[in-house]
Amino acid sequence: MNTQGRTLKEVRENLQEALRLIIEANRELAAKSEAGTSVIKEPIIIEM
C-alpha cells in the first residue's frame, strides 16, 4: 500500500484511514459470506 502527504504525520494519517477502509470493507464481505454458517471469531491486536 502506498500513500502520500506533505508531512510524515499526514502520511501516517492517510495510511491509517486507508487501512480502516480496507478492514471495514473486508468485514462487510465476510459478513455476507458467513451468513447462515457457524463461525468462530477472535479479536486480534496489532501493535505498531
Poorly predicted regions are none
Main sheet overview: none
**Shape summary:** elongated
How large is the radius of gyration? 15 Å
Give the helix/strand class.
Answer: mainly alpha
**What is the mean predicted local confidence, pLDDT?**
91
- The helix content, as a percent range, equals 55-70%
Distance between the termini: 16 Å
| Element pattern in H and E | H
**What is the count of β-strands?**
0
* Beta-strand content estimate: under 5%
- Number of helix segments? 1
Description:
The model has no long low-confidence stretch (mean pLDDT 91). With 48 residues, the chain is mainly alpha-helical.
Helix and strand layout, with pairings?
Elements: H1 8-34
TL;DR?
The protein is mostly helical and 48 residues long. The chain has 1 helix and no strands.
Summarize this structure as a short list of keywords or feature phrases.
48 residues; 1 helix; 56% helix; mainly alpha
